[in-house]
Recover the amino acids of this structure.
């Protein structure tokens, strides 16, 4: 990709030099538990890319806290902790969830005196029943398939310091919102919000989700590579789905694999690629940082917004 003029671009080798080598708080086994099905990430990736990122985030959080204190003093108001929100965006299958979970683990290790929590915006998809009523099942993942007003309300409550805020839970296993199940956000110091729409302007809203974020990351890769990762993940899902009739992918896992793979390719081209090109990719240059991946999910470049 061509580098936007408002970013500083760094090779992986340059980026890894911005932080001292540190003992990693992870083992190969714990890293396997963090990463998504087909996301390839190594302890070397953690050392080279994520440790410097955590150091940068420490500076960002410290600056944010000081600004909040100074603002409270200026307004002659009592100071109170306002959560620092990190947004992580990018295409499906690009490795957002792995990046989010890894950051959660690392921040918990290095920010021992702070409460770190993570949610995904998938929980704010409308339930399948509602999507069918609105004739939106074929647009699942597109902006109009989300309860964006609900997501905005959730983020506003978190930023406003509500002691307990709940968000719906989405299950990829059943491909739907789980009734009467919630994630509870309890006044975090840092909240990581991961989803394809964390940089988008909601339909019929004048507030961006990113208006609530204090640092945003876009995980990027060429669309041809993301398609390969999408299809690879689909095939891996089938390897476990055939054991569970309640799994959304069970009919595909127990049927003709060539037919199932053809269906997955159609879904990618008709839905996910279209969504990427029309709604997700255009928000890339709104991120504070772009993490670019190449073959094998290897991170090769990092772009940091200048101003």
């Amino acid at each position: 990709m061509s580098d936007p003029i408002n970013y500083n671009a760094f090779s992986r080798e340059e980026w890894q030099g911005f932080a001292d080598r540190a003992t990693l708080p992870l083992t190969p086994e714990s890293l396997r538990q963090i990463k998504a099905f087909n996301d390839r990430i190594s302890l070397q990736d953690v050392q080279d890319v994520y440790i410097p990122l955590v150091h940068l985030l420490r500076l960002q959080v410290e600056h944010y806290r000081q600004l909040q204190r100074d603002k409270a003093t200026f307004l002659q108001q009592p100071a109170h902790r306002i959560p620092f929100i990190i947004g992580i965006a990018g295409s499906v299958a690009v490795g957002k969830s792995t990046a989010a979970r890894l950051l959660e683990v690392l921040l918990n290790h290095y920010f021992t005196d702070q409460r770190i929590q993570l949610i995904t915006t998938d929980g704010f998809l409308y339930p399948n029943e509602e999507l069918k009523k609105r004739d939106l099942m074929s647009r699942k993942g597109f902006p109009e398939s989300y309860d964006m007003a609900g997501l905005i309300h959730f983020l506003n409550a978190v930023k406003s310091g509500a002691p307990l805020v709940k968000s719906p839970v989405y299950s990829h296993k059943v491909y739907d919102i789980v009734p009467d199940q919630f994630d509870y956000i309890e006044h975090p110091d840092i909240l990581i919000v991961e989803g394809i729409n964390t940089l988008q302007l909601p339909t019929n809203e004048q507030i961006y989700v990113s208006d609530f974020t204090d640092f945003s990351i876009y995980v990027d890769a060429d669309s041809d590579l993301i398609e390969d990762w999408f299809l690879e993940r689909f095939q891996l899902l089938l390897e476990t789905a055939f054991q569970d009739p309640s799994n959304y992918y069970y009919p595909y896992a127990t049927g003709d694999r060539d037919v199932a793979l053809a269906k997955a390719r159609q879904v990618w081209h008709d839905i996910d690629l279209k969504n990427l090109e029309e709604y997700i990719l255009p928000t890339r240059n709104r991120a504070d940082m772009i993490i670019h991946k190449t073959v094998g999910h290897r991170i090769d470049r990092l772009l940091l917004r200048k101003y």
In short: The chain is about 40% helix and 20% strand.
